[in-house]
Amino acid sequence: MRSARSCTACARPCRTASPTSPRRSPSTQRWPRRSRPATRTRHRLPCAPICSASRTARSVPLDRSDHPARLHARIDACISYTDGVTPPNSTLPWERLTERSPLAARIAAHTAQAIIERRHREGELITESELADANGASRTPAREAMVQLETWGLVRLAPKKGAIVTAVTPEERRDLLAVRTLFEANVRPDAATADALAEALAANLERQESALTRSDLLDFAGADHGFHSLLIQSSGNSVTMEILDRLGPRLARLTYQVIAEHPERIAVFLSEHRVLARHLADADREHYAELVRAHISAGHADAVTVAP
């Protein structure tokens, strides 16, 4: 039978108290707090690193940069060049990848390229596990890649499902071409950069001709976008280039769809690009603006919109 002990609070015998049970302090009348190791509770964020084997959060320190509100800033840093310099003729994500590019940037760029080439059809559902398995990665970079694809307007995120490939609507085509026309028609290159712009345009035209010879539709779409990017960049407006950088994959998709449906237009585009470069070099701004509007509107006039 357990021996009774006196309670320190009331000084009366207590049959339930045991020699090892904690005692109340007579001054506070509370149980003393047990000493616990000073450890930090790690909360699992929605985008915390995931272990593909155990499907649980890894035992790593909490990284606040993995919060969804900071994903866009992280991915924007992923797709930039390691030396901080972006070539003026390369604004498409798959054209500016380097050996040191993060995995999330590579997944996003290659998936964007597949969407433009219609290897992922409009309305198709892409899941995190599919992207992760196809690229030999975990779900974390796959999730970040999906966020970037949504930023580019190529997919629409579906909660708890994945990402759905968007379709180019007539309204989207009209709005994108209107933005491009607005930027390019108001180009006013100065004399200090005219020579450098002429050299860059000449190199780009050679790339277009090479893509035409090889019948490489994606390369020509990239060169076409690079040509128009050079024209817009000659204005020296950095904000405009930021907007164009985000719209780049969508604009390239428009060009790819047109030349895929009408391959004969590749030679027409190349010929019109040479005329635009010549008028820009001659500082014939009035005719240049008219030619830009005609080139963009006529090139996409009867483009077929693919339904999902």
TrEMBL record:
Residues 1-42 are annotated as: Disordered. Residues 101-168 form the HTH gntR-type domain. InterPro entries: GntR_C, TF_FadR/GntR_C, Tscrpt_reg_HTH_GntR, WH-like_DNA-bd_sf, WH_DNA-bd_sf. Residues 31-42 have a biased composition (Basic residues). Residues 12-30 have a biased composition (Low complexity). The keyword Ligase does not apply. The lineage of its organism: Bacteria, Bacillati, Actinomycetota, Actinomycetes, Micrococcales. This is GntR family transcriptional regulator. Keywords: DNA-binding, Transcription, Transcription regulation.
